[in-house]
Structures are given as C-alpha cells and as structure tokens.
Specification:
- Pathway: Amino-acid biosynthesis; ergothioneine biosynthesis.
- It comes from Nocardioides ginsengisegetis.
- Keywords: ATP-binding, Ligase, Nucleotide-binding.
- This is Glutamate--cysteine ligase EgtA.
- The protein starts with a helix and ends with a helix.
- The protein is built from 19 helices and nine strands.
- A hairpin with a 1-residue loop joins strand 8 and strand 9.
- Strands 1, 2, 3, 4, 5, 8 and 9 form a seven-stranded antiparallel β-sheet that branches.
- By secondary structure, the chain is α+β, with helices and mostly antiparallel strands.
- It is globular and about 55 Å long.
Amino acid sequence: MTAQSITSTIPDDPLDLVLDDIDDARTRIAADALRPDTDHRVGLELEFHLVDHAEPARRPDWPAVQALLAELPPMPSGSSVTLEPGAQIELSTPPRADVGGAVQALAADREELRTALAEAGFGAAPLGADPARPVRRVNPHPRYAAMEGHFSAIGCAGPGLEMMTATAALQVNVDAGPVAGWPDRLALIRSLVPVLVATSASSPYLAGRSSGWHSMRQETWYGIDHGRTDPITAGAPPERWADYALAAPVMLVRDASVLTPVTRRVSFGEWVADPRAIGRPATVADLDYHLTTLFPPVRPRGYVEIRCLDALPDRWWPALAALTVTLLDDPVAADAAAELCEPVAGSLDEAARSGLADPALRAAAAACAEVAAAHCPPSLKADVERLAELLAAGRTPGDELRHVAETRGPLHLLEEEARA
C-alpha cells in the first residue's frame, strides 16, 4: 500500500498527514529548525539526582517519587518540574531577557525545590553523573521503556541505560538571532563546545566506577548510535539539521498511546522513502517525535539548545551559564571567543576524556573565562571571576568532586551534594 493510497483515511489533524516524500520531510525540518529573533533571551535547564537521605545508596522507588512530586509547591519563577528515566528531577525555566535573569530564576526555583525536598527527607544532587548508585530505570513511562528496548536491540544497552538513568546536565537555551547571522552563530557555538565540555566536566565517577574520563556523562553518549549523538556538521544550519535528522535512525514509533521500539537501524529518510521499512507510512507527527529522539551537543528547536554541559553544583553552575551566554551574546566577547576556540574546535572527544589536562584546551578555557569575566552581567561577575581563577590554575569544578570521591568514596560525594 502506498502513502498516497491511504491519505484519504488520515484524520484532519495536520500532524496525522502522511509525508509526501523526502523533499516534503526535508522542507518541514528546515522550516522549523530556527526562528529569527534578536531578543537574546535565555532559558536554563538543570537536572538533579534525587536522593533519599534515609537510604542514599538506593534509588527511590517510583511510587515514592510520584508522591514526592505531587507535594511540590509551584516554583516561584515558573520553572517546570519533570522527571527523567532514573528519577532525576529537572527544573526548566521560562525564557528570560538575559542570562542574569535566567540564573536568578533558576536559583530561586532551585532553593524552593531544595526546601521542599528537605522537608520530605530528600535531596537533589546536581552532578554530571550519579557517582555511586547502580544504574536502574525507575520511571515507567512508555517512552523510556521503548528507548531502553531500542538501545538493547541495536547493541548499546549499557551506555543507553547509563545515559537515561545516571546522567544529569545543565542545558543553556539561547535565541537563534537574525537569519543572516545563523551560520556564524552556530559556527561559534560549535567551536565553543569543546571548551564548555572540558570546563564543565564533573562526572569522573558513574555507578561507583571511574573510567578515567573527566566527563563520564559525555562518555555514555559516545557509546550510543553516533547517528543521533554526533555534532551537526558545518553549513547552513536549517539544511544541515534536515540532513542530520533524515539520516538518523528511528528509535521508536508512536501509535496513539503505544510506543514501539524499532529494533534495527532504519533511518527516517528510509522510512519516508519506503513505508515497508517500518510497516506504515511516516506522518508529520512521526517526524516531530523523531526530532525529540536526536541528541547532538547543539540542537535547533526554533531556538538553540546547548546540551553538552555536565550538571554542576550550585556554587558553579551560575558561572558556567554566564560564561556560555556571554561568549555568545556579547559582541566583543563573541569575537574573542571565536578566535580563542578555533585551535580546539575539533577537540570534543579530548575535552570529555582529558578535560584541561590537554594544554590547548586549558589555554582556550582560561582565556575564554577571562573574556567572559570582563563582559558578563555585573550580577554574575564575582561568580565568573571565581571560575576564571580556577581555570587559570588548570583546574575545574570536577577536580574537587573527583577528590571527594577518591578520598571519601563516591557515595559520600552524592550525599554531600544532595545535602548542599
């Protein structure tokens, strides 16, 4: 049966329309990739590992997590509160006018979350990876069950489950800017990624073990299908995103409330070209959902998601958010960052593995932090200056976390940050 022969049976909902062909899919992806904007708004998302103070070595069970979430008060700055597969809690702020406002909003909601959890006997640790507890999926949502099934079927069950259940990130969302500036803006972000990864690397332990990587969170992404985790290539951003999405493997298929894992590698482009590859034609809704299963370090969602940062303790994440946005949105800082990061633009793997042990990354990170300290909002200047001093000494926030894990144990690190 061809896609055209069943079009008349599709409901009027535009999301249920069958995609005509590859060109139709490509056009839709490119059209929605970025939105022109000159407001320089900023949104922040921070994930935390949920810890029961009475039993810190055990992940909380799902009924307890649901009950806990149901009792949380509304966040004063309007952040949404969601749960990840391993019962990680995520705070996501609404967009703010600048990074100062976004940090203030997230900090206020973080404090509200901290207070509410403490009253219930829980804590939340913002670390790039759960350093101590065994990997286990807690959230039974069908999406996560299907993801787990897909990863298992294609041979990356371990990294897939680790990524889903034992990692946490600081995500920085920024406006795309004017159309004419998209190639340069995305090129700058790509060149910044290794510096941001090396600076934020704060996951030297995962599930009680150390692989030697400074960011074991980032290491888990390398163990998953590279078609959904590698960086998007250089070029016109909307078109390159369309190429990436069409070449990426389909993870799962959603029919009403049923989500079925795809157990062999089928790209979305192959599905559009031949409905028999999945068993039915691909629709607009399928395309929209497919895009949510792609995890490059920088992802266009109308705005730009910078997804490559490890979550950091409260004493450090405001500085990292300020550094990231300042190097993008302040014109003088952006020009300096483009030049400073050019020598290390292709060093993403090395950044995750070695952090600032790499001399070129160390020099670029220290210089970028100095630039950011000189141009960031006054309310965040002290935070960024403290981070700049640390980087100038060749150290990162992850080094102090590693020291605690190695001298007192990974579980002590988790408990300490959950009570901070």
